[in-house]
Amino acid sequence: MRNYLPSILLIAVFVIVWEVGARIVNTEFILPAPSGIGLKLWDLKGLLLKEHLTSTLLIIVIGLAISIVLGIALAITMTQSSVMEKTFYPIIITSQTIPIIALAPIFVLWFGYSIWSKVVVTILITFFPITVSTYDGLRSSSKELKELLLTMGASKKDIFFKLDVPSAIPYFFSGMKVAVPLSVIGAAIGEWLGAQEGLGYFSRRMMTQFDGAGVFAPIVILSLLGIIFFLIVIMFEKKALKWRK
């Protein structure tokens, strides 16, 4: 806790300033006080946690799972073939130049209000950091060690699993630490633009009712979700990379 004391103090100061400022302005529907958001969150805890949280959580998990499989597969494919690299890498980069928020309504037209329109948005946002980080990691393996393994009679399979993969693992987790918070954003964007349930949908519904505290309450849960998933990634990273200590 001592290591994070400056951050905790800064957040506390920010919340206090926010609370005082909101009370001075006294416009709850525009700038609700943190205390008001907390009370609203408590009042809606059953509805948000039992109904809407489950939907959002499912979107995040499915989107991340597909992004991990797709990202790792693309990274391996590009490192094993220069033709595949020249084919897919520009497409991967180009996919990130398209505003996702502009594509989300199109996905709603294609998939309706089902879960898959939100999952696709989440995948488009999250697969990029996983793919690029893993790809860079696979290419970062030491050439000297590779030459040493070749002189010792190692096959391409041995070099891949014993040199390339261990070299790529730290990069993969770096990509995951970027992708996890983005997955929460992707799910929220998808629900905001077209859904019948979920934390993003509930926040948009509260906005139409000019309920500022109701808008912020699901956002607080989304933020906590991002933090929890980030900590889970760090936990797995520490277990997988014990040698870095």
Number of helices: 10
Supply the CATH superfamily name: MetI-like
Number of strands: 0
Shape: globular
Largest sheet: none
Radius of gyration, CA atoms, in whole angstroms: 22 Å
| Secondary-structure-derived class | mainly alpha
Helix content: over 70%
Unreliable runs: none
SSE order: HHHHHHHHHH
CATH class: Mainly Alpha
CATH architecture level-2 label: Orthogonal Bundle
Protein name: Hydroxymethylpyrimidine transport system permease protein
Pfam families: BPD_transp_1
Family: Belongs to the binding-protein-dependent transport system permease family.
Organism: Virgibacillus alimentarius
Brief summary of the model shown:
The protein is mainly alpha-helical.
What does this structure look like?
It is a single chain. The protein is an all-alpha fold and 245 residues long. It has a single domain, classed as MetI-like (MetI-like fold, Orthogonal Bundle). It contains ten helices and no strands. The protein has helices at 5-25, 34-43, 45-80, 82-95, 100-111, 115-139, 143-151, 156-193, 199-208, 212-240. The longest helix is centred in the last third of the chain and has 38 residues, at 156-193. It is globular. The mean pLDDT is 86.
